[in-house]
Amino acid sequence: MTKSEAKVKRAPFFTKDLVKCVVVLAVIALVASALLGVMNWLTYVDPNETIMKEVATYYGVSLEDVSVEENMSKGTNVNNCFVAKDGDKTLGYCFYAVGTGAKDGTMELLVYINNEGVITEIECYAQGETAGYYDKVEKANKSKYVGIDCDDVETIKLIGSKDTPAGKGEINALSGATYTSKGYHNAVAAAVNSYNQNKGVAHENE
């Protein structure tokens, strides 16, 4: 038997069936991507629009009386700032702030500060903490932040759960939920810092 006879005949690598499979898979991938893009477009919710509606409801004004105040959102971890007005009178602000350092990532809060610089309300926009942790922190610490006069404190500080607050703007972390307390605090602190850094703009709007 000659060498040529001993050689095994190899099938071609690119067969018609293989090419067909590749083409079909590529088409499926393209169609799936297009459908996903359409679904994302149809279900996308603009955070600004959502928050503006909440701000209008909170201050009891129409949606047309709420606007984005870009000059008030110049601060670390503040995504945006919204101002509510009654005619020429500024009623207050809402800071869309992000708190880093939470147990399971970040925490997004809406921090309301009135035209006198006082925190009047804190609402959750988005959070992904382990079930129960956020609720515990909000119940224990929200009331400690609401009422703080930003004009009276340079910044706010989170201290240990066993410490006793020694000065203005100091907040105790909740024992057993330190990281969630940190995320909550950092969001509020970002709003306070942004307000204080740009309070000149706030007073100009009064």
Weakly predicted, low-confidence segments: none
The helix fraction, in percent, is: 40-55%
Largest sheet: 5 strands, antiparallel
**Widest sheet: strand ordering:** 1-2-3-4-5
* Shape summary: extended
Radius of gyration: 27 Å
What is the terminal-to-terminal distance?
102 Å
SSE string: HHHEEEEEHEEHH
Number of strands: 7
Strand content: 15-25%
Q: Can you walk me through this structure?
A:
- The chain has 206 residues and is of the alpha+beta class.
- It has helices at 3-6, 16-43, 47-59, 133-145, 178-197, 199-205, and strands at residues 66-68, 78-86, 89-102, 105-114, 119-127, 157-159, 170-172.
- The chain has 2 domains: 14-43; 47-205, no CATH class.
- The strands form 2 sheets. Strands 1-2-3-4-5 form a 5-stranded antiparallel sheet, sandwiched between helices. Strands 6-7 form a two-stranded parallel sheet.
- Helix 4 (133-145) packs parallel to helix 5.
- The protein is extended and about 80 Å long.
Quick structural summary:
The chain is an alpha+beta fold and 206 residues long. The protein has helices at residues 3-6, 16-43, 47-59, 133-145, 178-197, 199-205, and strands spanning 66-68, 78-86, 89-102, 105-114, 119-127, 157-159, 170-172.
